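Researcher: Go.
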Amino acid sequence: IVDWPTECKPFYAHPHPNRPEVCRAFDLNHDSREVTSGAQRIHNAEMLKESIARKGLNLESFSFYIKAFEYGMPPHAGWGLGAERFLMVLLNTGNIRECTLFPRDRHRLIP
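Model: Structure:
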């Protein structure tokens, strides 16, 4: 899935330059399960501040993050493949806990 609506993705997802209503982000799904996702991230401090404000978040809470961008940040992007999610698809299990060595949730925080 590409061209996600900007409002559906985190504040750091870079909007498309010609269509700001969508961002440069993707999700790779298999059988309605998300296997991986990725995006180009905002690398301009002012654009980042505007995006944080547009999401209704407190700029002060992100001051440490924004400060790094004020020194200059190169364009960057990335993606992450969750090993457990990938295994869940390969093994066709019904729950990610079946593919996790020490599954955790709100009721189980310690292995």
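Model: The first strand starts at residue 2 and ends at 5.
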